[in-house]
Amino acid sequence: MLEARKTSIISSLVFGLMVSSIYLVAQVYDFRVTFSEKDKVNNKYESLSFKFNLLLNEVEYFRNQLTIRKVATEKLGMRSPSLNDQILVTKESSKK
Questions:
Q1: DSSP readout, 39-66?
Q2: Which residues neighbour 79 within 8 Å (Cβ) at sequence distance 6 or greater?
Q3: 51 and 45 in contact (C-beta within 8 Å)?
Q4: Residue 11, exposed/middle/buried by CB under 10 A (0-12, 13-18, 19+)?
Q5: Residue 23, CA atoms < 13 Å, CB-side half-sphere
Q6: What residues contact 73, with CB distance under 8 A and at least 6 apart?
Q7: What are the two backbone dihedrals, phi and then psi, of residue 87, each rounded to the nearest 5 degrees?
């Protein structure tokens, strides 16, 4: 009777150890998968953040260009040259 009790206790402890080991392996796997996904999201975020900053700079540049054009046309009276006002200047190359 005592031998059977020891065997059942050892068997239940081994079974518990196996179940907890499998659970631990599953948790480690889930952690690694989650960490990999988090890393991919962080990389995507950095890429999008960089592109967003480039677009902001581009929008600011064009906004400044529009402001310059508006001030030039309204306050300074500047205008784009017509075809008659344009002069084509070319450079002749001298070969020796």
A1: HHHHHHHHHHHHHHHHHHHHHHHHHHHH
A2: 73
A3: no
A4: exposed
A5: 6
A6: 79
A7: -125, 125
Half-sphere exposure of 33 (CA within 13 A, CB side): 6
Residue whose pair of structure tokens reads 């999201």 in the numeric block: 41
Q: Tokens for 3?
A: 């031998």
pTM to 2 decimal places:
0.54
- Residues 53 and 47 sit within 8 Å (Cβ to Cβ): no
d(CA 86, CA 90): 13
Identify the three-state secondary structure at position 49: helix
- Kindly give, in sequence order, each residue whose CB lies less than 8 Å from that of residue 87, ignoring residues fewer than 6 positions away: none
User: For 10-55, how does the pLDDT look when each residue is reduced to its tens digit (9 = 90+)?
Assistant: 999 999 999 999 999 999 999 999 999 999 999 999 999 999 999 9
| Cα 93 to Cα 96: distance, rounded to the nearest angstrom | 10
